[in-house]
User: Fold Lipoprotein from Denitrificimonas caeni.
Amino acid sequence: MRLKWICLPVLAAVLVGCAAKTNYRSTCAQQLDSAWHELDLAKAEGFAGTVSYSKALTLITGAKAQQQFEAYEGCSKKAEKARFYIRESRAGR
Assistant:
């Protein structure tokens, strides 16, 4: 009986940890899709040689790696930052 009371909080903590891990899953995927699309547009417009474009490409690659390892929060943040650099690239900065 006492073992049940010990196992219940541990099980609850594990389940909460698993749920928190997937909080950013859809945001990560959406940000990455948008970033890749915007990067393609920037390349088509001739901004592929800018420093901001290179930074964005590096960030998107890192975000994709984090997505593969289920580090969705970091993926989302990197993809969002990449989108900033893509905008900077298209603005000529």
About this structure: The chain has four helices and no strands. Helices lie at 2-21, 25-44, 51-68, 72-90. Confidence is low (pLDDT under 50) at residues 11-16. Residues 24-90 form one domain.
